Amino acid sequence: MKIPSFYEAFTRWRTYRSTISELGRLSDHELHDIGLMRSEIPSVARRASHW
Fold first, then answer.
1. With the CA atoms of 50, 48, 23 and 36 taken in that order, what torsion angle do they form, in degrees rounded to the nearest 10?
2. What is the pLDDT of residue 3?
3. pTM above threshold 0.90
4. Residue 4 pLDDT
5. FRET label pair with 39: which of 7, 19, 21, 48, CA 20 to 30 Å apart?
6. What is the pLDDT of residues 1-51, one digit of tens each?
7. 7 to each of 11, 12, 18, how far by Cα in Å?
């Protein structure tokens, strides 16, 4: 397993945070339309950032 560089780790963290922020702005109705529940946002963000 390769240890990520600081830049890679920072990029992943930034992707994670922006995904949390963007999905968090959506209403429950909008989240439902895309097949998500609010409680799933952190796991979706982890997958998006490959964390």
1. -100
2. 75
3. no
4. 72
5. 7
6. 677 799 999 999 999 999 999 999 999 999 999 999 999 999 999 999 986
7. 6, 9, 16
Q: In this structure, what are the phi and psi dihedrals at residue 28, rounded to the nearest 5 degrees?
A: -60, -35
Question: Considering Cα of 9, then 34, then 29, then 32, what sign does the dihedral take?
Answer: negative
CA distances from 6 to 9, 27, 36 (A): 5, 34, 31
Phi-psi region of 50 (alpha: psi -120 to 50; beta: other; left: phi over 0): left
- Measured at the CA of 45, the angle between CA 26 and CA 16, to 5 degrees, comes to 105
C-alpha span between 13 and 45 (Å, rounded): 10
Domain ranges, ordered by start, for the chain: 6-49
